[in-house]
Design brief:
about 350 residues; alpha+beta; 5-stranded antiparallel β-sheet; 3-stranded antiparallel β-sheet; 12 helices; 8 strands; elongated
Length: about 350
């Protein structure tokens, strides 16, 4: 008679759950981001560890300082370098917005410059030949009195003639039906520039609240205001004041498109600056989403874990599957890890 003996197989021991890894740590074997994985105590050595859900590699959480006092020194140097880079980016953000706004002013006032050029052309054509020769000797105009080889908006006008003119009267009607269309088109470059800077700042200010980021960008845009006002202040013919347009005044002449831009370009420049600021705010709001899309497009899944902070800062799961394997979909705080007390 055969008796069946039942052999009870003991169930495998389940590691005690001690906490959750909240920082970014990549698996040394497959590159998976272990953010959100369970922390347990390794049986053999009793060390805190996390097991990769992709390849089952065990990653110890024990770390020992190896740099000593030099670690703090290197950290200070890197912090200063980061601060210098941030200040440099802020400077170039403001400079690019300012120059783009002035460029928009130049494009928008181009028809007014042509009106001034036509008036100066008429004045020159009515002058006696001896006077024309005297002016030509100064290099202000080319002695081709028919002006075939000149763009009327790029003429160099005699300063004495400019001082005697009423610029508003010469350019009356320049805000025709296409004025606002030109202004809209000229604002596209500054909007693209502002949006790009907004994306950059959304990454630079990764761990700051967006309200503080908006304040910083508002300060940068506000600093551009006095520069724009100064660029359209003072006398055009005397080449005084500040800004790019004074470089078109020298000797006995001034370029007519500089006259138009400086005298009539304040409003277009301010409106263009406003468009760039709004675009920069939009870039700040959508910047991280855009960067995450670029990361997904350009990097394979096993390399995205190094940039997982772009997801975690907005409470999103890790890009390499943290939502499937991690605790709470890979969501968590910003510490290194959390252990139950």
């Amino acid at each position: 008679m055969t008796t069946d003996h039942q052999h009870d197989t003991p169930a495998p021991a389940v590691a005690e759950r001690l906490g959750v890894l909240l920082g970014d740590r990549l698996c040394v074997e497959c590159g998976f981001n272990l953010h959100g994985q369970t922390i347990s105590r390794e049986e053999h050595y009793g060390m805190l560890a996390v097991r990769c859900p992709e390849c089952s590699t065990l990653a110890s959480l024990q770390e020992y300082p190896v740099l000593g006092r030099w670690g703090a020194r290197f950290g200070a140097v890197l912090a200063l370098a980061w601060l210098g880079a941030a200040l440099g980016v802020a400077f170039f953000t403001g400079l690019s917005l300012y120059l783009a706004a002035e460029s928009a002013a130049g494009v928008t006032t181009r028809p007014a410059a042509r009106m001034i050029g036509e008036a100066y052309k008429t004045y020159v054509m009515e002058m006696p030949e001896q006077t024309l020769d005297d002016i030509a000797s100064t290099g202000v105009i080319n002695p081709t009195w028919a002006f075939e080889d000149w763009n009327i908006a790029d003429l160099w006008a005699e300063t004495d003639w400019v001082e005697a003119q009423d610029i508003d009267a010469l350019t009356r009607g320049h805000r025709d039906g296409t004025y606002w269309l030109r202004l809209l088109v000229s604002a596209i470059p500054i909007a693209l520039i502002g949006g790009a800077w907004g994306v950059v700042w959304s990454v630079l200010l990764l761990h700051r609240r967006r309200t503080r980021a908006f304040v910083l960008l508002g300060i940068i845009a506000a600093l551009c205001l006095p520069l724009i006002v100064l660029s359209h202040w003072g006398s055009t013919v005397e080449a005084d004041g500040f800004g790019p347009w004074i470089s078109y005044s020298w000797g006995g002449g001034v370029m007519v498109h500089s006259i138009a831009a400086r005298e009539l370009g304040l409003l277009p420049a301010l409106l263009a600056l406003g468009a760039g600021t709004l675009a920069m705010a939009g870039g700040l709001l959508l910047g991280r989403k855009i960067v995450r899309g670029i990361v997904r497009l350009l990097l394979p899944p096993n390399l995205r874990g190094a940039l997982a902070v772009l997801w975690h800062v907005d409470g999103l799961p890790s890009p390499t599957g943290g939502g499937k394997h991690g605790v709470d979909g890979g969501r968590g705080g910003r510490g290194a890890y959390w252990i139950r007390g």
